[in-house]
Amino acid sequence: MNFSDYPKSLSEVAADKSDDCRKWTPRDLLISLLRQIDSGEIAPTAMIVCYEQMDSEGEGQEYVALSGVRRTHAIGMLTTAAAVMAVGD
């Protein structure tokens, strides 16, 4: 499936408009990335996905998935991402 022409969801539009990432879902974020990749706008060579999922007792459990990167390089990418998030774009 090619997501290059997949439309933005209402929650993605709302998040963009208000600059509030809490307004879109993890699925919206993934589709947005797929749209950018399939349209050729971006061409990631490595990716880190961190997510939280609630367990049966309602406690958050964190998970990480890596692609195209060694763990040591991933730590550097995460450190850079944390710095960017701390100061903004």
Descriptive overview:
The chain is an alpha+beta fold. It has three helices and two strands. It has a two-stranded antiparallel ribbon. The longest helix is centred in the last third of the chain and has 17 residues. The protein is globular. The N and C termini lie far apart (31 Å).
Summarize, please.
With 89 residues, this protein is α+β, with helices and mostly antiparallel strands. It has three helices and two strands. The mean pLDDT is 94.
- First and last CA, distance: 31 Å
**Lateral strand order in the biggest sheet:** 1-2
- What is the rounded Rg? 15 Å
Mean pLDDT: 94
- What is the share of helical residues? 40-55%
Order of helices and strands: HHEEH
Largest sheet: 2 strands, antiparallel
The tally of beta strands, per DSSP, is: 2
Are there runs of 5+ residues with pLDDT below 50, and where?
none
Number of separate domains: 2
Structural class: alpha+beta
Shape: globular
- What is the strand content? 15-25%
Q: Please tally the helical runs, counting DSSP H or I stretches of 4 or more residues.
A: 3
Which properties best describe this structure?
89 residues, alpha+beta, 2 domains, 2 strands, globular
Helix-strand layout with pairing:
Blueprint (H helix, E strand, L loop, with lengths): L9 H9 L7 H13 L8 E8 L5 E8 L3 H17 L2
Antiparallel strand pairs: 1-2
